[in-house]
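ERR on first pass: missing label on line 2. Operator R.T. fixed the label and resubmitted. Corrected input:
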Amino acid sequence: MALFELDRSQYPEAKADGSLDIDLASGKYLKLWQGPQHPGITGNMSVELTVCGDEVVEGRTHVGYLHRGFEKLMERRTFIQCFPIVCRICVPEPDFNEYCYAAAVEELAGLEVPERAHWIRTLILEMGRINSYMMYLGGQAGSFGMGVIGQWATYVRDLMLDRFEEMTGARIYHMFILPGGVRDGLPEGFAVRMEETLREVERALKDINDVMYCNAVFKKRTVGVGVITPEMIEPYGVTGPNARAAGVAKDVRKDQPYLVYPELDFEPVTGSVSDIYTRADVRRRDVHVSIDLIRQILQKMPKDGPVMTRLPNVLNWKIPEGETYIRGECSRGEYGYYLVTDGSGYPRRVNVRGPSYTHAMALLEKLIVNANISDVAGLMVSLHTYPPEIER
Amino acid sequence: MKDLTDRLGTLFSLGDITEKRDDLAFVSVAPDLLRAVITHLRDVEGFTHLVLLTAVDWIEGGQFQLTYLVHNRTRARDIGLRVFIDREEATMAGIHDLWPTAATYQRELKEMFGIDFPGSPRIDEEFILEGWTDIPPYRRDFDTKKYAEETYFHRPGRETFDPATHMKDKLYPGEAS
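pass 2 clean. output:
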């Protein structure tokens, strides 16, 4: 079998429409499917790779393995019936769906939410952010062969799930943030137990930093790989840590503050070059920011007061005609809900805008070209994408 | 937002304007003006981030509403452009040359609503649905209940027991309750 030299003359020519002229019969190129059943894939999606030797010349993202038609389902359900559905759109960080949906309904229905509910919502979103980053850290380390980091991160995530469980009664899908407020206040002694959990998170982060971020192999494999340039950010709709790693301080929490973020003291974490390493580092530092925010929230939040406003009869709840868009900064970037109502008891249209929609499709397909096959998994995980946001 | 909509109004013929919040407005524009307005917003007004592109099916009026939501990060505000197109001849010019990510949205709209964007990359390629032969499923006239009844079958269900009766029958069979 002939060996391929890394020679650009081997690469396919572009056709008039911009697509590549790939002749598989020439023997120069090979099709490889990474996913949907593959350890180096994020969730239920796959990437169709065309390789020349061990270099990728084209990558195409395929989704559809998880389509449950949430947006369509919601058009046939009353506003309150939609509330337990939305969290299921994203498993690792479900609370953003609850918040965005609730805030959109509240705006169109003209509901005022009690102040304490805003604090509890912010607390939940920051707890969820830590959980989501922990899942990411496990995946990112795993894609470079460091399986033990995933176990440490899962342990810490499990402790945070304990806090979720005592607060909401559920570990994954909390169904706690609903239109009008939140279901309950904090349990007795919650702040003390949360502080213990936060210390465990900090301890684990230190270990992860020593073993993963200071690891020469990890650095060699990730520095300078999969770079998102600042010029790519707006055309490709890049948001969140992927953009911030490139030095662009895009953070909805600062740019368009919502909930109680204006009352909290923090600065968005940024990097200098958005390669795999810097993106991972931005997320690690972002966990520290979330830890600090949780401490501030628990210190500053009102200790008592209502957490839920009085809703109209939810069985016959009609919301006036209108449309709105609500956004927030989740662990992966901008998360938003576009809600259209027509005066009936059902949403006319709900559109979920998840950051993975742009990151896992157009951006990944751009970055994957010229990558080495062995870097594809690491590159994909470094964008921190969850396929359910693409196929809602 | 009023300053922006006023400026736009002097340059283009706009339809309904809805100022939703201080940082969010929706403006209706004619399909043939969309490209000029959105390019102006991107290049002159600083709305460089395409937040989303989606459709709403107003079946009663025989129209699709396309919503192009763009964001200006410096001024922290959004504007949604509403474009109404005929439901029977659902075709619209693409904006994938302005934002490469728009190609994905347009591909999804073609599959889910049957709205065509001629010339958009891979527009006829299956996006989420594989081997779909019915009408585009996100249209309002697609009957999800009917589809589910014709495509799937009811599971007979498991045998269930009322715990109290079950334990009594198990522990004391034959005894009158």
